[in-house]
């Protein structure tokens, strides 16, 4: 039977992360950062666009205020531990590219790293942003798209 619940109780029932991404951003003082993101979506067909929602406490939020590009990474089958690292440590404290031994090469948009073991990467330029409570939604226009024929998308385990 349908009943009124508080938000966390009702949301727990449908909160089953499945597709999870990471975003690469450029640090204000050079180098790059990675953040795990569940809150993302495709928002336009032509031009292709993705929106990501980034918490105001995240170092990635600071990075995006400064350098208006991100690379949306769809992880490959071997990147589970990198998703855990990028989603639990802050780029303020560690360099996630070296800690995670991330294999990458420079992309075409501001040299944002393309992750060799990802299933796909989309280099985006931020075209607009909207504050959404304690997060901000950054809408990025895809400038360059990469995909890896040998990799399958990693799906976050459902429980
Ligand atoms: C599965 C998963 C999904 C997440 N999704 C988001 C998200 O959509 N937006 C967000 O701001 N943080 C999200 N986080 C939390 C950040 O990834 C985490 O706080 C990270 O350490 C921030 O890194 P930074 O400080 O280097 O930016 C998620 C974490 C996990 C494990």
Biggest pleated sheet: 7 strands, antiparallel
Strand order of the largest sheet: 2-1-5-8-9-4-3
This entry's quaternary arrangement is: single chain
Distance between the termini: 23 Å
**Rg for CA atoms:** 16 Å
What is the helix/strand order? Answer: HEEEEHEHHEEEE
Count of helical regions? 4
Bound molecules: flavin mononucleotide
What's the structural domain tally? Answer: 1
CATH fourth-tier homologous superfamily: Electron Transport, Fmn-binding Protein, Chain A
Q: What's the CATH class label? A: Mainly Beta
**CATH fold field value:** Pnp Oxidase, Chain A
Q: Percent helix among the residues?
A: 10-25%
* Beta strands, count: 9
Question: Would you tell me the overall average pLDDT?
Answer: 94
**Overall 3D shape:** globular
What CATH architecture do you see?
Roll
Q: What fraction of the residues are assigned to beta strands by DSSP?
A: 35-45%
Briefly note the structural class of the backbone: alpha+beta
In short:
The chain is α+β, with helices and mostly antiparallel strands and 159 residues long. The protein is built from four helices and nine strands, in the order αββββαβααββββ.
Describe the protein in words.
- The protein is α+β, with helices and mostly antiparallel strands and 159 residues long.
- The chain has one domain (19-147): Pnp Oxidase, Chain A (Roll), CATH 2.30.110.10.
- The protein is built from four helices and nine strands, in the order H-E-E-E-E-H-E-H-H-E-E-E-E.
- The strands form two sheets. Strands 2-1-5-8-9-4-3 form a seven-stranded antiparallel beta sheet.
- Strand 1 and strand 2 (32-37) form a beta hairpin.
- The chain is globular and about 55 Å long.
- The model has no long low-confidence stretch (mean pLDDT 94).
- The structure holds flavin mononucleotide (FMN).
């Amino acid at each position: 039977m349908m009943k009124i619940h508080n938000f966390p109780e009702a949301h727990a029932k449908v909160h089953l992360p499945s597709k999870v991404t990471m975003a690469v951003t450029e640090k204000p003082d050079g180098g790059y950062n990675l953040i795990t993101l569940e809150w993302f979506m495709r928002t336009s067909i032509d031009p292709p666009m993705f929106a990501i929602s980034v918490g105001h406490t995240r170092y990635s939020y600071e990075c995006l205020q400064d350098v208006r590009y991100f690379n949306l990474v769809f992880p490959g089958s071997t990147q589970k531990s990198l998703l855990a690292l990028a989603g639990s440590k802050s780029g303020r404290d560690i360099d996630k590219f070296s800690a995670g031994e991330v294999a990458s090469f420079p992309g075409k948009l501001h040299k944002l790293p393309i992750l060799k073991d990802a299933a796909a990467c989309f280099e985006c330029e931020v075209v607009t942003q909207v504050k959404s409570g304690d997060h901000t939604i950054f809408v990025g226009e895809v400038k360059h798209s990469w995909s890896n024929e040998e990799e399958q998308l990693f799906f976050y385990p459902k429980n």
